[in-house]
Amino acid sequence: MIKKGEKIKSLLKNLLTLVGVVAVVGCRPVESSSSTPTSDGGTVSSSAPEINYTGTRQGISATEILVGNTAATSGGYAAVGIPFNLAMNVVFQEYNYYHTRKIKLQHYDDTFDGSIGLTQTTKLVEEDHVFALVGHFGTNTVNSTVDYIQEKGIPMVYGVTGVNSLYFEHDPGNPILSIQPIYRTEGKVLLARILHEKLYGAQKNAAFPANGKVVLLYTEDDAGNSIRVGVEEEATFAGITLQKFPFTVETAASVAAQAKAASPAAIIVASNQPGFTATVTALKSVTNTAPVFSSYVNANATNVTSDGSALPFDVYANAWVDIVDAAAPGPLHPDLQALPYGEITLPAAAFPGFTEEYWAEYVRLMVSSDLSDGVTTAGSLWANNFAVAGFVAAKAFVALLDRVDLDRVTWDSFIQVAESAPLDLPLCGEIDWGNGSRVGLDTLSLNRYYPISDTHATSGFDKVRPTEGLATIRAK
Predict the structure, then answer these.
(1) Which CATH class is domain 4-181+331-436?
(2) From the centroid of its chain, how far is CA 353?
(3) Domain 184-319+444-474 has CATH 3.40.50.2300
(4) Which H or E run contains 199?
(5) Closest among 440, 472, 474 to 192, alpha carbons compared
(6) pLDDT digit string (tens) for 196-212?
(7) Which helix (H) or strand (E) holds 328?
(8) What is residue 49's predicted lDDT score, i.e. its pLDDT?
(9) Which pLDDT value is given to residue 10?
């Protein structure tokens, strides 16, 4: 019999698994041994590198730091944009408590329309005079504005998409400060996992077959093509030949039959959620048995099967977070002994299996805030995927603020400081923009789907490999 606590734990796992563009991460500034006070009550590290404080300076006064974003906060995408921005404001609220120079977020609703996003981004920069774009939201707006951002030179912290237009291997001074894994980077990691991990055979501990084939199924859109590029680059590095089949939701059934006929040892599905779900369903119909690997955007059990049923093959997905601690009890912090869960409140003991760091850094901040947007309260978002994405964006920005002299900082000097040392992301590793690297995080864990069973009240994903970088995976 499954205990109530185990059911709640499984439900929470699904809530916190990466979905679409989000991830559960926190950020903290790099520690320094000494610091110099600034006029707003903050400090800047005295061990920071020499920075050239020249160039454009706007959006920062003696009392305010103005930042902006456009995000869909109406219509169908309101369920994404409202939690995202509300969590950012919670982080800024915390920062403002300790500083006289307050962060203010200027937001416009772009309804997830790229042309509107470009118009609003231009307004933020040229009329509102924001200092930076924080949490630049969605594939459509990012693709429409990336050239404008680079032309103007305004800092952009955290692009809420993995699209390849944000990928730059060596471009010092580039104002785009991506954090979320770029699909091109992730494609490399996907194939490296397939080739170098012992995941095969009845016991799931055998190496990839010496003559094994890899089939790549991809949608011909921004997401599918972006992942495909990374997979192809890793195939060239490894000296293997891929068998590739483009597909759509409508052609998934016939393409699945082609994939099975190729007798692959592994299949990569490079697509967003609709294409992935259609392909998994089709592969089940043709009784495929080869393991399927896909992006972090598909690491949610409901994207695998709607009913939590078992499959004749394993499904693996990346994740760029590490919040699971199987031996951990519920949160220990005294502020978190009772937590809202839908219409009810449950004791902390009902939520075992997650790191204390996650509870203390993210959940505590959300449930202690009095902020809201309409009927949505910050406290209700403690297990909301889109809210944690906003948390990431804002935490990264304030960590960078702690490195600069706010009395003098310019766009160029802010980028210099961002490139000067890696930024520690405690739940998922670190991001390093040094030498102009703009490839997003390449440290990813690997999760495997599990169905509803006697031991699981709901389907979900379990971590089977820890957070590791590409070089580490290749060396196995």
Answers:
(1) alpha beta
(2) 21
(3) yes
(4) none
(5) 474
(6) 999 999 999 999 999 99
(7) none
(8) 59
(9) 46
